[in-house]
Amino acid sequence: MTTHPANEPRSEQYSAKGNTYEVKCFGAGPGGIDENAEAVEWLRAVSQGFHGPEPSKESLEKDLAWLNGEGVRLRAVYSQDPVPPAALSDERPVATYCSWNSSLTLGAQTQIPAWLVSEVTVRPTHARRGILRRMMTADLTEAHEAGFAIAALTASEATIYGRFGFGAGTFNTSVAVAAESGLKLKAPSVGRVEMADNKAVAQLAPQIFEDFHELTPGSLKRTSKWWDYVSGQFDWHTGKTDPEVRTAVHYDENDRADGYVSYKFVRGSGFKGTLEVVDLVSPSAQVRIALWEYLCGLDLVTEVRHPNAQMEDPLMWGMVDMADYEVRKRYERLWLRILDPVAALSARPYRSHRKVTVSLVDSLGFADGLYTIDTTGQQTVVERVGDRPRTDDDAAGKSMPRVELPDGADVAMNIDALGSLYLGAVKASTLYYAGLIKVRDLDALDDLQSLMSTSEHPYCISPF
């Protein structure tokens, strides 16, 4: 049972490398800008950290509203040292961090509470002073104590979070589909697509997304700020409306809306140009293909680009000429951090009957130990069966200790590797051949791979 920590203001001081800092935890209140001075400066620091523009008044008001509505926990670090002339005020945090409660889909109608981490910034002039580790450790400890089995984030820099136990758990692609001759499919598409009113789509979108979320492994629940963004009513990045966004809705044979797409036309030379997908959502892959057919059939469009496509995309296999489907980038979308292996592994579905004892290495201590996963009976049984032997790396306090295979264990791995295996985005054998998993023998590797495999590739369309 997870509990939801109160957003109570609190603070502490610490020193590092001759500098003194105050770490504050607080939330955004129900009022606007005038009643939320700390949260406003926090938002300005976030925009600064990601090289964004100075937030407008409208942008600040909207952000304060969703931060308050979702009960987001804000963390900020302030320098306590004298501020030199012309430098940023000491009211502006030198580091930011936040987290909130969500849900992660593991399979059809199967979800687990998830602790989401976002807006992590540290001003470069205050780097290498342990600020990020202090915020991350405190926040994950709070999540663990509140009963959350898993934390998640989307990373702007992939090299940062492995040392905190996060592993890449879902992957997406950025694709381009040739559209000058339309989209030729091997099988006829389903339903029909109509151009739509953006404001009406903003009302339809939450339920269509919820249907997608309930059925799609890897999906995370979205916050309220999404609907203005995907309908062009407010762009997070520019802080204003986006009149270039257009929308369309897919209807089934009973005229029920079961999918939508929002997109923008980017003019090239002359009148022709490309379409860029802002959001494309349906619980049905066939409906998503029909929405692609609509996009590729619009006049003057030479190419349709989608920066958030599936790794294993049915669209490519449904095309007559898959050479018209070009993958331009592959990237990790969702990073997962297992905080409670018993709860996390008990919650996910399994397709095979195996029994495996796993040694997990977790330098932060939340998940460290020996665990048995047994799916051979009527019900899955996951239990912690003991401590793993300590190593020299443990004694030295390394953030990612060397993995060793102790007696009694079939396999051994660092906790970030379990995050990557958890939703089935990567095979255990792939991690083994990369040197990230140790096994008793290849039979044990086969058992682990069969145990963690899934029937559907995970797909997360909601960065945060």
TrEMBL record:
Q: Which SUPFAM superfamilies match?
A: Acyl-CoA N-acyltransferases (Nat) (SSF55729), SCP-like (SSF55718)
> Domain Eis-like acetyltransferase spans what residues?
218-330
Tell me the ranges covered by the Enhanced intracellular survival protein domain, including all copies.
343-460
InterPro entries in the record, alphabetically? Acetyltransf_17, Acetyltransferase_Eis, Acyl_CoA_acyltransferase, Eis_dom, NAcTrfase_Eis, SCP2_sterol-bd_dom_sf
Q: Where does acetyl-CoA bind?
A: V120, T121, V122, R128, R129, G130, I131, L132, R133, S156, E157
Keywords noted in UniProt: Acyltransferase, Transferase
Active site location: Y161 (proton donor), F464 (proton acceptor)
Database matches in Pfam families: Acetyltransf_17 (PF17668), Acetyltransf_9 (PF13527), SCP2_2 (PF13530)
Subunit structure, interactors included: Homohexamer; trimer of dimers.
Protein name per the record: GNAT family N-acetyltransferase
Give the originating organism.
Kocuria carniphila
